[in-house]
Amino acid sequence: MILPIVAYGFDVLRKVAKDITPDYPGLDKLIADMWETMYSSNGVGLAAPQINKDIRLFVVDSAQMFANMDEEETMLYNDRPGIKQVFINAQVEELIGDDWAFNEGCLSIPKIREDVYRAEEVTIRFMDENFNEHVKTFDGITARVILHEYDHIDGKLFIDHLKPLKRKMLKGKLDDISKGKVSVDYKMVFPK
């Protein structure tokens, strides 16, 4: 089932999400719905807070980014062909390497894209959908998508990484989003 994505301005996007246990009600269906919602919105990642759930759960499919690049462009990144992964109760263990810029957007903040600096690599501890624990290091585009989604479960948004002047310049657009004055081609709900 395609779930509505909450827009900028919802409180849940600013909460630090809670860990869950394997007996979380309807977890398998929730994960399946998150994949369906992400794909129907043309996203490459989706975090539970974006569907109004304050739990530490996100999904990432960086493989589809590589599928949409030409072969020459894929050679710029060591993490090809990407991953498709569920992350539960994730905790960043280490950020490695220099920060690098990439133009990011967010399904909860439509029509705004900005260059964001993030670490080259991330080592992250997480549970998969079967609650098997993993500690893995990711780099390149995959690391970036993971860090973007990880921010969501920590109550942060990609705009928080921008310089204060840039954020100030975006205030009008952000206010419009929170008031529902934006048109999207996916299911979205706006704060009341």
UniProtKB/TrEMBL annotation:
What keywords tag this UniProt record?
A: Hydrolase, Iron, Metal-binding, Protein biosynthesis
Tagged with keyword Flavoprotein: no
Cofactor binding comment, as recorded: Binds 1 Fe(2+) ion.
Q: Which domain of life is it from?
A: Bacteria
* CDD domains attached to this UniProt entry: Pep_deformylase
Q: Provide the E.C. number(s) assigned to this enzyme.
A: 3.5.1.88
Q: Which reaction does it catalyse?
A: N-terminal N-formyl-L-methionyl-[peptide] + H2O = N-terminal L-methionyl-[peptide] + formate
Give one GO term, molecular function aspect: peptide deformylase activity
Cofactor(s), names only, from the UniProt record:
Fe(2+)
The answer on whether this UniProt entry bears the keyword Hydrolase reads: yes
**Function of the protein:** Removes the formyl group from the N-terminal Met of newly synthesized proteins. Requires at least a dipeptide for an efficient rate of reaction. N-terminal L-methionine is a prerequisite for activity but the enzyme has broad specificity at other positions.
Q: Name one GO biological process term.
A: translation
Q: Where is the active site?
A: 149
Upper classification of the organism: Bacteria, Pseudomonadati, Bacteroidota, Chitinophagia, Chitinophagales
Instruction: Write the protein's name.
Output: Peptide deformylase
Q: Which residues bind Fe cation?
A: 106, 148, 152
- Family per similarity comment: Belongs to the polypeptide deformylase family.
